[in-house]
Fold:
Amino acid sequence: MRILLPIDGSQYSKRAVEFLMNAEQLKIHTNTVVLLNVQKKLPAPVEHKLKDGFIEDVYNSEVKTILKPAKKKLEQAGFKVKTKIAFGRATENIVNTAKEIKASLIIMGSHGRTPVKGVLFGSKTASVLAQTRCPMLVIREGTSLGSGRHKIGICLDGSSYGDAAVQYVEDNIHLFGTDPVIYLINVITPYSGLIIPQISSFGAPSMTKEDFEDAQKVPMEPIYEKLRDKDIETKVILLKGDPAAEIAKYATENELTILVLGTHGRGAFQALMLGSTAMRVSASCDMPLLLVHRPKKDKISEAVKENETVDNVPTEKPPTSEDRGIKEN
Structure:
């Protein structure tokens, strides 16, 4: 596993370094950490007017004050570390470096602004996320995977992007410590008398409360069974209300270790995964966010469809809500 950690000397990147230093499971499964520092490239006319060696002195100073201390800390923590300096636009260099080293994960620190005060992740983090398919771990102030049994919250909205989050956790369960607990979280927005237009010449009939809420429920059974078959303890959490508020509240009150979200996931009713909800979730709680892109082949969706066919209906009595650890709020 190769981790790309862009650093610029800010408190946000220092936070990401501190997080990685204490992430024991990542340490065990990581081959190399690449620390990347991106310097702005001066316009050619400006460079020509500067004394010979001035630019090199500036860059060497950055290496001493930013890269070397971070490299030393991570090496002392047990990581194999390489450093790289790039010149030009930060986003472009981060994305290109991730491709070049075939990064398995990008870790970036981020501020905690609300959507009202500014862009949640900061323009750099958001821009990188939009241009790379590499999973990204966004670190907030004071966050840590900590020790003990990890509680992994996976936010689902019925889209294939949410399925991708499940698939990533399933494929990389070793990164989440010994015997983690998975929380499959689905939030239903309450009915408010909304009229749902249909493609029809007969008008736009209103949806009933039951139809509206049932349409938002994610079929958890196949995902639950798939994880349980691999001896992964799994709980199904059904919440009702504003998605961002309910996810953040549940994650905080139940002390989840990390939230995993598929990027750009949109269900029939909610732009849940990346967008206003994810922004507000992160603005409301300080835990790490793991953002995952949908793979080219949606393995989970295929598995769900297969399990939903008549030939694959289990003959055993399905587990009760109590068996599955379902909690409805």
